[in-house]
Amino acid sequence: MKGKTSFFSRLSKRTSDLAGSPHAFALAVAIVLVWAVTGPIFGFSDTWQLIINTGTTIATFLMVFLMQSTQNRDTRALQVKLDELIRSCEGADNQLLDLEEIEPADLEELQLRYEKLAETARANGGDKSTRELD
Question: Is the alpha carbon torsion for 17, 21, 27, 28 positive or negative?
């Protein structure tokens, strides 16, 4: 099942790993410190301020897309794993498979049903006979 991953997937995973490392944080702190120390040298000029503002804006802009890509990939993988657990458990409600694709109103209805089930289970001291939803 191991398929070839796209260049963007490999790049985003690697960049995400690097960006979340202690070394990346140390580098960011060092850049800010160098920028702050050079403030008096450049007389705290508009250009001096523009350098850090532009750099942080560009980094933030790119990281938003990188983080979204990483989050999307992780969420899809988690959904597949959960779907497999639901599918493989005897007595599981298979309508719970692929819930991320249903309408919000239907999802809310299911959530209310499960909240009622949880209330019943708590009232019965966690009795497993409350597995039924209807």
Answer: positive
Contact 66, 18 (CB under 8 A): no
Q: Is the pTM of this model over 0.85?
A: no
In whole angstroms, how far apart are CA 2 and each of 5, 41, 62?
9, 54, 28
CA 131 to mean position of chain CA atoms: 31
Residues 103-112 have pLDDT tens digits of: 999 899 999 9
If phi > 0 it is left, if psi is from -120 to 50 it is alpha, else beta; for residue 94 that is alpha
pLDDT digits (tens, 9 = 90+) for 91-105: 888 888 888 888 999
CA-CA-CA-CA torsion sign (24, 29, 32, 34): negative
Q: Mean pLDDT, the chain, as a whole number?
A: 88
* Domain ranges for the chain: 7-94, 102-134
**Phi first, then psi: what are they for 52, rounded to 5°?**
-70, -40
- Judge contact between 15 and 66, C-beta under 8 A: yes
